[in-house]
Design a protein that fits this description.
Helix content: 40-55%
Shape: rod-shaped
Mean pLDDT: 78
Number of domains: 3
InterPro entries: FAF1_2-like_UAS, Thioredoxin-like_sf, UAS, UBA-like_sf, Ubiquitin-like_domsf, UBX_dom, UBX_domain-protein
Largest sheet: 5 strands, mixed
Number of helices: 12
CATH class of the largest domain: Alpha Beta
Organism: Lupinus angustifolius (Narrow-leaved blue lupine)
Subcellular location: Endoplasmic reticulum
CATH architecture of the largest domain: 3-Layer(aba) Sandwich
Strand order of the largest sheet: 1-5-4-2-3
Distance between the termini: 125 Å
Strand content: 5-15%
Keywords: Coiled coil, Endoplasmic reticulum, Ubl conjugation pathway
Number of strands: 10
CATH superfamily of the largest domain: Glutaredoxin
CATH topology of the largest domain: Glutaredoxin
GO cellular component, one term: endoplasmic reticulum
Length: about 450
């Protein structure tokens, strides 16, 4: 940090001290060297208290042996611990508000929700601290990775030490929640005289290592680092070596089930961890069953939703088919109506044309009847003509002998007995066709006087 105010603010955030004058004095005593001041503050042998009220959330660890603590009461030591805001906000992979757990201690019923898994692997890192990570990690995860690498160099290797996860505390807590296991926490005080022996003989013993790796998610941090220091304050670590067993609770809190302070033998550590595990087993089983029930309910809802969507698609397909059928029938009805209308119009036109034709024929017959005039009385100059039609009907009339053959055609036309105008008048004996060339001849000139019998022959 570049200026004094930034260093002072950072020192206050790391140590939890609220008195700026006290923080200024500590930094001045270390020539404003932040790293040296924080290291000296966390490893001091004297008990330092915050000038804030006695019930403040931050208490600073003692690195020397203090008076023996009274034994814990029977059963799990359920305590709700408020996590530091900087631990929560600085962790990687925690989605705010996405995960809610019911208070495990109070009701024994876990309200579980799937969350995001952290980036760190479950096994400790075997690479050196100088090797660059393949992906970017948070400052908290970087601190833990450095601690795991340093611990491995000092006390063991993979398989001979707890499998500390290489991620921040909140991500490790989330990992334990997702796997329905408790979180084993180890806070490492490198300067404490009991630390080496405890790590070598107890924490890295074959029995303790195997039991922790099998039944817990293990997280460790150095109190020299920011997150480890904050967790020691939050868990109120007063003696070292310090271990704790915690589980997630609600509202950014953890349930402190057991804390182990001071040196312990492997046998004593196993007894404590086995007791915690046995007494927590009903809660973990309830949590797992609750999660499975939620997953089953979720899967059932998804299946129901899928079935509903499938039924909806079938209904929609039927509705589309029904609409298409209605549209087809409507089109066919409209087409039939159009054709019927066209046919009706055609019939009306045909009837009108026929009526007009009939009217024209009637008018023509009337005109030809008028041209013929009145039928003359019998006399020497009157010719009797008999006309036979193709249907066997016979019609007769008297004509003046001076009337022309055209008068005979006009007479036949005036009768209206034929539906065609293409015909000829023919005599049988001898057969004579009175066609166009003879229309101007008189009946007497044509040899039809004083009487004649003609028949109508339809021309093909």
């Amino acid at each position: 940090m570049a200026d004094v105010s930034d260093k002072l603010a950072y020192f206050q955030a790391i140590t939890g001290l609220e008195d700026p004058n006290l923080c200024t004095e500590i930094l001045q005593a270390h020539n404003w060297d932040l790293e040296l001041a924080i290291s000296s503050f966390t490893s001091t042998s004297s008990s330092t208290t915050d000038p804030s009220p006695a019930d403040t959330a931050y208490h600073f660890p003692q690195t020397t042996d203090s008076q023996p603590q009274p034994p814990p009461p029977p059963g799990l030591a359920w305590k709700l611990i408020k996590l530091p805001v900087t631990v929560i906000s600085g962790s990687l992979g925690l989605v705010s508000g996405a995960i809610g757990l019911g208070l495990w201690a109070a009701g024994g019923v876990l309200s579980y929700s799937l969350g995001m898994i952290g980036l760190g692997s479950s096994s400790s890192s075997s690479s050196s601290s100088s090797s660059a990570p393949l992906v970017s990690v948070s400052a908290a995860a970087s601190e833990v990775i450095n601690f795991v690498a340093e611990f491995e160099r000092e006390y063991g290797a993979v398989g001979t030490m707890p499998n500390f996860v290489g991620e921040g505390f909140m991500d490790a807590l989330q990992r334990s929640r997702n796997s329905f296991r408790l979180l084993f926490v180890y806070l490492h005080s490198p300067d404490h005289p009991d630390t080496p022996l405890f790590c070598e003989r107890t924490l890295c013993s074959e029995a303790v290592t195997a039991f922790v790796n099998e039944n817990f998610v293990a997280w460790g941090g150095s109190i020299r680092a920011s997150e480890g220091f904050k967790m020691s304050n939050s868990l109120k670590a007063s003696r070292f070596p310090f271990c704790a067993v915690v589980m997630a609770a609600t509202n950014q809190r953890i349930a402190l089930l057991q804390q182990v302070e001071g040196p312990q033998s492997p046998e004593e550590m196993l007894v404590i961890l086995q007791r915690v595990l046995e007494e927590s087993s009903p809660v973990l089983v309830a949590a797992r069953l609750d999660a499975e029930e939620r997953q089953n309910n979720m899967r059932l809802r998804e299946e129901q939703d899928a079935a509903y969507r499938a039924a909806l698609e079938v209904d929609q397909a039927r509705e589309r088919q029904r609409r298409e059928e209605e549209e087809r029938l409507a089109r066919e009805a409209a087409e039939a109506e159009r054709k019927c209308k066209e046919e009706e119009e055609a019939r009306e036109r045909a009837a009108q044309e026929a009526a007009e034709k009939q009217a024209a024929l009637a008018k023509l017959r009337e005109e030809k009847a008028q041209v013929l005039g009145e039928e003359p009385e019998k006399g020497p100059d009157v010719t009797q003509v008999l006309v036979r039609f193709p249907n066997g009907e016979r019609k007769g009339r008297r004509f003046n002998s001076t009337a022309t053959i055209q008068s005979l055609y006009d007479y036949v036309d005036s009768l209206g007995c034929l539906e065609t105008e293409n015909y000829s008048l023919v005599s049988n004996f001898p057969r004579v066709v009175y066609g166009q060339e003879k229309l101007i001849l008189s009946l007497k000139e044509a040899g039809l006087h004083p009487q004649a019998s003609l028949f109508v022959e339809i021309n093909s």
